[in-house]
Amino acid sequence: MVQEMPQGVGAPLVDHVTQRSGKQAALNWASRNARLLAPLVTLISMFIFFSLVTDVFLTTQNLQNIVTQIAPIAVAATGVTFVLLCAEIDLSIASVATFTGVLAAWFWVGDTVSLGAWGIPVAILIAAAIGMLNGYLVAFVGIPSFMMTLAMLTIGRGMSIFVSEGKPIFEVPPVLKQLGSVSSQIFGIPVIGLFALVVLLLGEFVLSYTKFGRYVYMTGANREAAEMSGVNTRQVVMLSLVISAVTAGLTGLLFIGRLSSANPSAGDDILISTIAAVVLGGTSLFGGEGGMRNTILGLLIFGILSNGLNLLPNIPITFKLALQGIVLLAALLLNVFALRIERVQTRSE
User: What is the dihedral of CA 112, 115, 120, 124, to 10 degrees?
Assistant: First the structure.
């Protein structure tokens, strides 16, 4: 004989099971997307913290300053994302950026070679040629990317000093000055920030919606499997290093526009800032995991942290750089734990 469930018991039991399954589904979703959620939580926390402790942080002028400061790094980070996703590294971006900027200013001054504004595309083409050389020697000759780009870092730095004779060039193309100026705005947004956004969105489109983007992920995730699937991984690596060099060249042009001068000794911090921003966002140094959305989050974290620490009045200026490193390390540890959670969840499914 079947016993009937007492009236009013069934509905609460069903609701409890539904709520439990809903919480479990939400937890599973969060675990699967931990790589993106960890930097997002870090970004929101920093934004709220600096908004509460300083009166200047949320002002329009300061937000414009943040955009202007991270824009050149954002352009370089676009190319570095491609390289890291291939499980490679490009240490030459700082010297390529500096050399490209020096070349553009040198062509503009025209003491030896006068190209005027045409020096800008010529300088970018030279940056692309450097990337092609990096890519060919890494992908087809077999030199490890760490060593190849380290050598190119030294070559680029030496060429910058040679071309400029070790002296800053104080005349740069007006179009670059206009592009790098904080006062150049569209709807209140600095033009340099909009330029960086276009580059980032273009990188996102290539990685997410093109065959080449899929090949980049496949190459970084498992190169042997990608080759067995018919992917020309050597060509993918070479093109990624070309993209990295071109974006580094654009970064150099943005920097000389901001500073209104081309200094062969400037730009040394571009490398650390760029790779830190990309890795902060959750893109793996071992390839195949991450992407442009992660890079955007990492850039915002890096920019807000650098700007916010400068606004804190009670911290000695001599300690702020060390504090920035400590916070970055904490954010990286959070990303590592998030990655482990994501991998455990993926394996369990």
Answer: -70
In a domain, 168, yes or no: yes
Which residues, at least 6 apart from 266, have a Cβ–Cβ distance to it below 8 Å?
Answer: 98, 255, 259
If one counts the domains in the chain, the total is 1
Residues 178, 192: Cα–Cα separation, whole Å: 9
Cα angle for residues 199, 90, 202 (degrees, 5° grid) = 15
CB-facing half-sphere around the CA of 85: CA atoms within 13 A: 34
DSSP-assigned letter for residue 188 = T
Q: pLDDT tens-digit profile of 49-96?
A: 999 988 888 898 999 989 998 999 999 999 999 999 999 999 999 999
Long-range pairs of 47-56 with CB within 8 A, sequence gap ≥ 24: 47/304, 49/308, 50/304, 50/307, 50/308, 50/311, 53/312, 54/308, 54/311, 54/312, 56/311
Domain for residue 236, yes or no?
A: yes
Give Cβ neighbours of residue 174 (< 8 Å, ≥ 6 apart): none
Query: Which amino acid belongs to residue 325?
Result: G
CA atoms of 264 and 164, how far apart (whole Å): 7
The values of phi and psi at residue 35, to 5°, are -60, -35
187 falls within a domain: yes
Contact predicate 83/146, CB 8 Å: no
> Which one-letter DSSP state was computed for residue 232?
-
Mean pLDDT of the chain: 85
**Domain with 169 in it:** 70-290
Name the pTM for this structure.
Answer: 0.86
Question: Is position 91 within any domain?
Answer: yes
Contact 295, 36 (CB under 8 A): no
Beta pairing class for 189-190 and 185-186: antiparallel
pLDDT of 159 higher than 80: yes
